[in-house]
Amino acid sequence: MQLEQSLVQWVGNLYAAGLSWWTSLGIPEWVWVALMAVLKGVAVLTFLLLNVLFLIWLERKVAGRIQRRPGPMHHGPQGIFQTLFDALKLVIKEDIIPSQADKWVFITAPLVMIAPALMIWVVMPFGPDLIARDLNVGLLYVSAVSSFSILALIMAGWSSNNKWSTLGAMRSAAQMISYEIPLGLALVAVGMLAGTLSLKGIVEAQQERTWFLLLQPLGFLVFIVAATAEINRAPFNLPEAESELVAGFNTEYSGFRWGVFFVAEYANLLFMAGMAATLFLGGWSGPAFLPPFLWWLLKTYLFVFLIMWVGWTLPRIRVDQLMELGWKFLIPVGLANIALTGVFVILT
Amino acid sequence: MATTSPPAQAPDVRVVPDEQDRSSSHLYVSMGPQHPSTHGVLRLKARIDGERIVDVDPDIGYLHRCFEKHSEQLTYPQIVPYTDRCDYLAAINNELTFALAVEKLLGLEVPPRAQYLRVITMELQRIASHLIAFGTFAMDLGATTAFLYCWRERESIINLLEEISGARMLFHYVRIGGVRNDVTDDWLRRVRAFVDDFISDKLPQYHRLITGNRLFVRRTKGIAVLTPEDAIAWGASGPVLRGSGVARDLRKVEPYCGIEKYDFNVPVGENGDVFDRYMVRMLEMEESAKIIKQALEGIEAGDVMAPLPRRWKVEGETYVRTEGPKGEVGCYLVGDGSDKPYRLHWRAPSFVHLQLIPVISKGLLIADLVAVIGSLDPVFGEVDR
């Protein structure tokens, strides 16, 4: 706690000193502010991409252990560098664009996929002061940006000019739109309880009262199911169900572009786990023997593991059953939860 | 055995044209031959409406090896390893069928110990084959973990069979007149240990992991129902026929290798859906284990090979069928008195079952189609031969 605070203070001093030096050079102040904002973004991205590299390794290890095999073992202790080499391989692979594909849409789809996956991290509170920007409409921002990736999947599926891709894209459009709603409903209930839409405010509200997991068990259930579906993880990984649709929307993608989809998927996984931790497990708050950032990381990885565990155990749900679960179960439960929360807020 | 008669009218099954029909709004997709869940090289020509299947037509022939014609150029003992490659997941059962056919024409008497060994290996092979059926089926439904658990038990079986035959997949253990070589008492003990462990520990694990799973049950119950009438009319056999509720097992109907002495049940399904076909296989593994246990108790010392004729003079015509893991494996053999068959025809259950796909999968979803293929458990080595 102390270390992190002093670190933040040190950075703040550095920032102020830099600013005074900068203005003494005669360059306007906003350039410095803009530059620093970019730097902050780069810091978050670096952290994020390092985590994604780790996550991919973790997924293989978790899957391996669940399936009674060791997972990657070469390349470093316990195969920790495996993803690094895989990424290298993906980058140097031949770049294939199908001749019948809609070229520009095909090329931009991965970018449209990765952009919201990175943008969404702006509002994630890693610690009391460790937040890129604490928007007062944080929850709204989250639900707005996370729905962006549907566009990318449709673009990828459509432009590939492949029937399996198109089918995968159609599935994902139906799935993500359907699950956006329960996800939003769960977020609304959390916002009502906290009295703010700012993620930082939500964590602070939980420090005052208690973890929202205890106050919002229904909301948590809806959130975690809808979030798993939203990020296309098993058992809801229908858009890329390999045994049905070959590889779904990214059938025609290979090499670096495929890698971009892959990174976006894991960035989304980490974000949704981080959101679950922030909204329901008190985010960075925790006993002082660990710095807030580590608390956040710990809780996030708890959810990451949970999602992986479920994903590698259950069979895949069928597309009509998926819709049924979304519309006939999650949305009514989400609505009921909002009503209950309303009563609860009035009473307390 | 249920008394059911064939339907008066043949089901309406059309051949799906090989290209997109521009005048209709249905989408034509070619599922396979390189598709992750077609169990080899099956190609399904399908017309779909959204995700619903309008028509589907299996297209085969990507693994054709001219097995039947090739056999006419080979002497009888030389053919045995080729039969392994038909249903390559159940090599022993194929060898057995061919060996029985030749023995029938030659009038060979197989020694009792060889009979016991045949029963043991055949049932071990049935368990191994059903394990793959279960594992790949679960994997098609998205449960990859069950698949790798199956591999563990199959590995044990393969290790046991490797020890007595030297091969790990295409065993060439059952020979005309007996089996390749004798086994040690220690080997029999280890078979016993494996079977005990399998029944008491491993099989319940699968049931806990998959059978009781709600997602799994909802995806398999009531899907692709095959009525007993249709099953009989289309020549279904094995777990597919029994899943439809027809209790017909060639080990009971036409016993071979002295299997009539053993006490085992023939599990049947009730509804003939995907779940029943799956469940029949799971229950059959238990029955196979029961048979193996009895064989291990009854096995007696003695020769494992009957004295073979110095010159092969196989004359006559015969059809021998056995109950393979996939269904009725048949061998039609015509000998013209030389050491090579005049004609050999192989009846492959998978080939027959493939025709069921258009019959039972109309109006299903693509995801169900995958489940249907998994529940029929085709092996393309024997479909194309």
Query: In angstroms, what separates the terminal alpha carbons of chain B?
Result: 31 Å
Assigned CATH class of the domain at 109-311 and 357-366 in chain B? Mainly Alpha
Number of helices of chain B: 15
Multimerization status: heterodimer
How big is the Rg of chain B?
21 Å
Which percent range describes the beta-strand content of chain B? Answer: 5-15%
Descriptors for this entry?
heterodimer, A: 348 residues, mainly alpha, 14 helices, 71% helix, B: 385 residues, alpha+beta, Cytochrome-c3 Hydrogenase, chain B, three-stranded antiparallel β-sheet, 48% helix, globular
Question: How does this model look, in words?
Answer:
The complex is a heterodimer of chains A (348) and B (385). Chain A is an all-alpha fold. Helices cover 71% and strands 0% of the residues of chain A. Chain A contains 14 helices and no strands. The longest helix of chain A is centred in the first third of the chain and has 38 residues, at 29-66. Chain A starts with a helix and ends with a helix. Chain B is of the alpha+beta class and 385 residues long. Helices cover 48% and strands 13% of the residues of chain B. The radius of gyration of chain B is 21 Å and the shape is globular.
Topology:
The complex is a heterodimer of chains A (348) and B (385).
Chain A: H1 2-24, H2 29-66, H3 82-92, H4 103-119, H5 138-146, H6 149-159, H7 163-194, H8 199-208, H9 212-215, H10 217-230, H11 242-245, H12 255-280, H13 292-311, H14 319-347
Chain B: E1 27-31, E2 43-49, E3 52-59, H1 67-71, H2 76-84, H3 91-106, H4 112-140, H5 144-165, E4 174-175, E5 178-179, H6 185-211, H7 214-220, H8 228-233, H9 238-243, H10 250-253, H11 274-298, E6 315-323, E7 328-336, E8 341-347, H12 349-354, H13 356-360, H14 366-376, H15 380-384
Antiparallel strand pairs in B: 1-2, 2-3, 4-5, 6-7, 7-8
Helix pairs in contact in B: 2-3, 3-4, 4-5, 4-11, 4-14, 5-6, 6-11, 11-14
